[in-house]
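TODO from last week: model Response regulator.
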Amino acid sequence: MKQLKSILVVDDDIVAILTSQRIIKKLKLDVDLLTARHGKEALDIIREICQGDQHLELILLDINMPVMDGFELLEELKHSDDLSCALLRVVLVSSSTHYLDIARAKQYPVIDYLEKPLTAEKLSKFL
């Protein structure tokens, strides 16, 4: 059975999620777009993917969210043995350009830090 590739968008802003959906449709990507409104919800999705027949192509992760923010999610991913099966290609997509957020992001294995809004050009670099 062919593995379904997925992109997980983790953002509490519905406009950011809709923008991601529009961009993925525009790029005609053969992926399943999954969404989570905060880090805890994203963890549940990632665990489910690890147990199923899916492949997580990319995580587009916001920093500032309720319940569990992006940095807390990165910490959880870093230290959870049950998530070792997940392909952790994470791109931080944030409206924050604060140097402390950018410096903190460098402490994690993220592949880039993008300023919102996400565009097709920005996303296509990672696919």
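Done. The mean pLDDT is 87.
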